[in-house]
Write a structure and sequence with these properties.
Strand order of the largest sheet: 2-1-15
Mean pLDDT: 97
Shape: globular
CATH superfamily: L-arginine/glycine Amidinotransferase, Chain A
Radius of gyration: 17 Å
Distance between the termini: 10 Å
Strand content: 15-25%
CATH architecture: 5-stranded Propeller
Number of strands: 15
CATH class: Alpha Beta
Structural class: alpha/beta
CATH topology: L-arginine/glycine Amidinotransferase, Chain A
């Protein structure tokens, strides 16, 4: 598959108030803006048209647009983020998504679903059950996807915030895996690029039209991905790591 477009939202001035379980300190707003600009440029370098939305100071986490929707070849699904403070982000993203998708589905209460818990591998969707995605949310997204003949399954895990915090699909049968996902029974059939604990943050990498975006500062990860035959673009993600964000979190690709 290939991607034509991406939706992103600029970091807001209140980014230091974003949700975080990190011990990295508070993000620097100006540095976050600069890193986001570099991210947008990398998306364009991968051949994507980038739709850049203005910052929304009402929602400190709103730069992480991936959690608000799932964009499939057949429909868009607006999610219902597991963090109550983020649920208001969805409606603004839906107004943009409506320009590109005729069929739009919705996750309803009491279901919760974060886009960061959805991993697409070829035509199969893995739905992670996490602190942000509950069984009802997973049930709803699976029911929706099955209506479009899209196969899916749930993934149980305990340690990571999101499914894509520790696993990424790079095409050609390659998975980047870290932590509990290295030995996870559902991922044993793939060619795994296994990431050690010290570089596990970089497991959240992003395949885009043959290139792979990787967080800078994790040389063993970048080298392993290059050896698998992919071109690597390294990006500084220090300010987003401070608020539990990764490369995939910053865009909706379609």
């Amino acid at each position: 598959m290939s991607f034509q477009r991406a939706i992103v939202r600029l970091p807001c001035k209140n980014i230091s108030k974003a949700l975080s379980s990190s011990d990295q300190g508070k993000p620097n707003y100006s540095k976050a803006l600069d890193q986001h600009r570099q991210y947008v440029e990398a998306l364009r370098q991968c051949g994507l048209e980038v739709i850049v939305l203005e910052a929304d100071d009402h929602y400190p986490d709103s730069t992480f647009v991936e959690d608000t929707a799932l964009l499939t070849p057949y429909c868009a699904v607006m999610t219902r983020p597991g963090a109550l403070s983020r649920q208001g982000e969805v409606s603004a993203i839906e107004q943009i998504v409506e320009r590109y998708f005729q069929k739009i589905e919705h996750i309803q209460s009491p279901g919760s679903l974060d886009g960061g818990d959805i991993l697409k591998v070829e035509d199969h969707y893995y739905i992670g059950l996490s602190r942000r995605t509950n069984p009802e949310g997973a049930h709803q997204i699976i029911s929706i996807l099955k209506r479009y003949d899209l196969p899916c399954s749930t993934v149980h895990f305990r340690e990571m915030l999101h499914l894509k915090s520790g696993v990424a699909y790079l095409e050609k049968g390659y998975l980047v895996t870290a932590g509990e996902f290295i030995e996870h029974p559902q991922f044993q059939e793939f060619k795994q690029i296994k990431i050690g604990q010290s570089e596990s943050y970089a497991a959240n990498c992003l395949w885009l039209n043959g290139k792979v975006l990787v967080a800078a500062g994790y040389p063993r990860v970048s080298e392993a991905i290059r050896k698998a035959g992919f071109e690597v673009i390294e990006l500084n993600m220090s300010e987003f790591r401070k608020i539990d964000g990764g490369l995939s979190c910053l865009s909706l690709r379609f």
